[in-house]
Amino acid sequence: MSEPKKLYIKTYGCQMNVYDSERMVEALGGQGYVETKTPDDADMILLNTCHIREKAAEKVYSELGRFKGLKADNPDLKIGVAGCVAQAEGQEIMRRQPMVDLVVGPQSYHRLPEMEAKARTGQKALDTDFPEEDKFEKLKARPKAKRAPAAFLTVQEGCDKFCAFCVVPYTRGAEVSRPADRILTEARDLVERGVREITLLGQNVNAYHGAGPNGDMTLAGLIWELNKVDGLERIRFTTSHPNDMADDLIEAHGTCEKLMPYLHLPVQSGSDKILKRMNRSHTAESYLRLVERIREARPDILMSGDFIVGFPEETEEDFQATLDLVQEVKYGYAYSFKYSTRPGTPAAERPQVDPDVADARLQRLQALITRHQREVQDSMVGRTVRVLFEKPGRQPGQMVGKSEYLHAVHVAGADIATGDLRDVRIKASGANSLAGELL
Ligand code: SAH
Ligand code: SF4
Ligand code: F3S
Questions:
Q1: pLDDT at residue 274 above 60?
Q2: 29-42 burial string, b = 16+ CB within 10 Å, else e?
Q3: Residue 152 contacts by C-beta under 8 Å, 6 or more apart in sequence?
Q4: Most exposed of 14, 54, 122, 434 (fewest Cβ within 10 Å)?
Q5: Could you tell me the distance, in angstroms and rounded to a whole number, from the CA of residue 52 to the centre of ligand 1?
Q6: Which of 346, 336, 325 is nearest to 272 (CA)?
Q7: What's the rounded Cα separation, in Å, for the pair 400 and 434?
Q8: What is the pLDDT of residues 78-132, one digit of tens each?
Q9: Whole-number CA gyration radius for the chain
């Protein structure tokens, strides 16, 4: 038998890319590849890229530059670019970095085996179509290998919202939901392989409306179906849009026992003027009312969010409105970004905020968010949380897992195994994690 070929895959960007990378490794497994952790001895290097901000996109080119030497040493090495930069820049990537053999957009991964074969013959392979066929269905060749206890499962892709700053509707295409039965089959398969927690993914996951047995199913409907899967203990979903937070989903947060008390619900800004210009179609007030309703359904829910500062025409007053909103919600986690101009999006044409002003605002917002994050995390001390243990900690005899609120929790205990779900009393709160004892 011939030696397996080695695939080095590096993933940037969102969790959907993490999921896609796993599927690509599996797809190329059928071509005789096994994953390797270093590019040095690889037969194929694949960068799964992100186009969301300018820096993310530029990183790809500098990373490719680093592989030049490897390609000189090993002319058989194939280099591929996948993901959202591949979709957005296509052929341009091969023009800027002629050593790239293969460029594949996010909707064409099921064609990767053919593309790899083409690249092996010395030809360039490029596919950035939005094909009709279901890539996940065609990517079915799933091995039976054991999996880590927490897994991602993409249920919805693409976005029709067209926020004025965002490339996703262009790189991922129109919003599409996978049929419920395929998701349930995949979930059961994951559980058989050791998975106990599934995070359902979608750029607009709460807009999910996949075909079910009695017509289209909502995300809440899908969650209730997953709730029945034996051996699956926890369900999460991300990322949600405020406008798609349907009543049945809010209610599920209060009643569905496997649905975890954590919700990532990006608002982007606290200023109605900016929200309007962002084409967000919700106001600060409607968002705050929504958060209130969610907290009524599930009082202990941990809220998480995303913010953009320095969006075109953002004034100090607009920014202050963002700080006010953050103050009111008190996020357990929040991610804030300086606005990055993305060519081809509507906001790119508008008057830009001075970058130094935007930097200073970002720092102020991050300071507030960090303080809240810390307070929320500290408030766990003395409480009992349930932890899904994922891996050994840095210290001997220690294990790390996640609480229902997604805080990392360290626990000493020789009898804890990966995949165990145990009650833990929280004793201390550190910089980025909690520490506790088994009950
Ligand atoms: N579909 C999700 C995630 C989109 S990308 C959602 O609607 O929230 C993740 C985050 O990146 C966004 O929430 C936004 O805060 C940020 N982002 C998107 N485009 C950006 C840009 N041009 N500049 C800075 N941040 C951006
Ligand atoms: Fe981008 Fe807005 Fe769609 Fe989120 S909802 S992916 S921010 S366009
Ligand atoms: Fe980035 Fe594409 Fe995800 S642009 S955030 S990898 S959808």
A1: yes
A2: bebebebbeebeeb
A3: 15, 16, 18, 19, 22, 198, 199, 201
A4: 122
A5: 7
A6: 325
A7: 10
A8: 999 999 999 999 999 999 999 999 999 999 999 999 999 999 999 999 999 888 7
A9: 22
Dist. CA 51 → ligand 2 center (Å): 13
Q: Which domains does the chain have, with CATH numbers?
A: 5-127 (3.40.50.12160), 145-260 (3.30.750.210), 267-278+292-379 (3.30.750.200), 384-438 (2.40.50.140)
Torsion on CA atoms 215, 141, 79, 94, rounded to nearest 10: -30
The C-alpha atoms of residue 248 and residue 245 are separated, in whole angstroms, by 8
Task: Judge contact between 392 and 122, C-beta under 8 A.
Answer: no
User: What local confidence, expressed as pLDDT, does residue 414 receive?
Assistant: 75
Ligand 2 center to 18 CA (angstroms) = 18
**Side chain identity, residue 227:** N
Q: Give the nearest ligand 2 atom to 169 CA.
A: 8
d(CA 46, CA 93): 13
Strands 408-412 and 434-438, bridge-based pairing: parallel
Residue given tokens 């990055």 in the structure block: 340
Q: How far is CA 424 from the centre of its chain?
A: 27
Hey, what are 139's tokens?
Answer: 């990517």
Pocket of ligand 2 (CB under 6 A): 159, 161-163, 166, 168-169, 203-204, 241
103/132 Cα distance (integer angstroms):
19
E-assigned strand segments in 344-407: 384-392, 398-402
Answer whether 321's CB lies under 8 Å from 295's CB.
Answer: no
Q: Is 168 in the pocket of ligand 3 (CB under 6 A)?
A: yes
**Nearest residue (CA) to ligand 1, atom 8:** 266
Nearest bound ligand to CA 337?
A: 1
Whole-model pTM: value is: 0.96
- Ligand 1 atom with the smallest distance to the CA of 266 is 8
